[in-house]
């Protein structure tokens, strides 16, 4: 295996990442404050695109835990923080569309167009374009 | 919430799926034989595309377990099986490129171009085009 790897440019070795490694990765506000962590991913079945990283936000032992679907393109991996930094401050993240776990499971992760519109309307000013 | 959902066409309510629901879903050969299950996903960081579903293939209590990265487009969800059916027979799936868990973790899921080429060369006759 080392033979196959030797000579491979470093950047290509990090082009892909396992979903199991994305989950649990902390999410920071633009000020560098830790806000939550990625709990799950929401994937468009047909194309296989990750539409949202589902951020878990607060709560204690699952009580009061809320989930904020973040458009994937907002997440910028930051080596120094060893986590994702998003270009919103804490209050903007707090006020973003969020759901309880039951809602996410039931809907396959904000899969109802009505929800999608609300989410992309909210994050639109930060760059992400609707995926549909 | 029910108000938001009512009137939404059924098909749109299943456009997205949570990664946590994909994981654990059984994979069947084209003859309908259960071969393994999806253990993880391999995601292209920049675009957020799921490139591979990582299929766990056999093994017992993790011993001898091998992982076969399957190009996402090969997976066809089948309601009757309640799982993914791929257009290969058992022996073609057995002979496909596979890796141990350590290799997958280290490489972020077959992220070295050399591996990608081998995988897409193997599955090319079944339809998937290289993603790069």
TrEMBL record, chains A, B:
InterPro entries: PRC-brl_dom, PRC_barrel-like_sf. Residues 17-91 form the PRC-barrel domain. This is PRC-barrel domain-containing protein. SUPFAM superfamilies: PRC-barrel domain. It comes from Rhizorhabdus histidinilytica. Gene3D superfamilies: PRC-barrel domain. It comes from the Bacteria.
């Amino acid at each position: 295996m080392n033979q196959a790897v030797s000579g491979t440019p470093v950047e290509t070795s990090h082009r892909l990442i396992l979903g199991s490694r994305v989950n649990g990765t902390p999410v920071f506000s633009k000020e560098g404050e830790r806000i939550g962590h990625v709990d799950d991913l929401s994937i468009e079945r047909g194309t296989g695109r990750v539409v949202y990283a589902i951020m878990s936000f607060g709560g204690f032992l699952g009580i009061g835990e809320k989930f904020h679907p973040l458009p994937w393109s907002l997440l910028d991996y930051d080596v120094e923080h060893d986590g994702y930094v998003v270009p919103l401050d804490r209050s903007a993240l707090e006020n973003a569309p969020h759901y309880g776990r039951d809602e996410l499971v039931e809907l396959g992760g904000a899969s109802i167009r009505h929800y999608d519109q609300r989410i992309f309307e909210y994050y639109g000013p930060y760059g992400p374009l609707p995926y549909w």
